[in-house]
Design goal:
By secondary structure, the chain is of the alpha+beta class. The protein has one domain: Pnp Oxidase, Chain A (Roll), CATH 2.30.110.10. Helix content is 19%, strand content 39%. Strands 1, 2, 3, 4, 5, 6, 7, 8 and 9 form a nine-stranded antiparallel β-sheet that branches. It is elongated and about 55 Å long. The mean pLDDT is 95. The structure holds flavin mononucleotide (FMN). The site of flavin mononucleotide has 15 residues, from strand 2, strand 4 and helix 2.
Length: 178
């Protein structure tokens, strides 16, 4: 029964691609910076595949996270659903950072803005209205992460449920003290 929880987690993640209000749509992506310092930020879940278990995120090629992932492919992905008191804590590694011109071309102009600022993300500016865009010169990148392990934690009475699934353990669920 509990091995179904891995499939349940994958199903819920896939649901967040379709349902814009799903709590797993936004998650925290942590990467490793220079000298091992952690960097966390919120991103949108853009793709989930079950086998092999992968997760996709869209970003700007010039953003710090891309440079960090190229130097160190390890990442942590944290999802939380407050209505279910359910946390999915994922360890992953970058599989690929791909420029996808056709995906970028198909985006609406407001969406293209997120990947087309003339100046690189993080460049200091005078004010928020100083940003200019070049829609012909997008910096759109799809990050694909391979999931290495997933920890499923659900707070409930009488017993909380914490179970680890990992590639190393052949995705067999291992109960953990919560
Ligand atoms: C609600 C929300 C959703 C976001 N989604 C994304 C996203 O899907 N991709 C992305 O690169 N940045 C996204 N951001 C911006 C990041 O949190 C971050 O500020 C930006 O990517 C720069 O991060 P970096 O300098 O660490 O690379 C989002 C921010 C918020 C508040």
């Amino acid at each position: 029964m509990y091995t179904d929880l891995l499939n349940d987690a994958k199903k819920q993640l896939a649901g967040a691609i379709v349902h814009k209000k799903h709590p797993f749509r936004y998650f925290t992506l942590t990467t490793v910076g220079k000298e091992g310092s952690p960097h966390s930020r919120t991103v949108v879940l853009r793709g989930v595949e079950s086998d092999p278990f992968t997760i996709k995120v869209y970003t700007d090629t010039r953003s710090a996270k891309v440079q960090q992932l190229i130097q160190d492919p390890r990442a942590a992905l944290l999802f939380y659903d407050s209505s279910q008191l359910l946390q999915l804590s994922i360890k992953a590694q970058l599989l690929s950072a791909t420029d996808a011109e056709s995906t970028f071309a198909a985006l609406t102009e407001p969406m293209k803005k997120d990947y087309s600022s003339t100046l690189a993300p993080g460049t200091p500016i005078e004010g928020p209205d100083q940003v200019t865009y070049n829609f012909n010169q997008g910096y759109f990148t799809i990050l694909t992460f391979e999931v290495i392990s997933l920890e499923y934690l659900k707070l409930k009475r009488p017993n909380h449920l914490r179970i680890r699934f990992s590639a190393e353990e052949n995705w067999k669920g291992v109960f953990l003290t919560p």
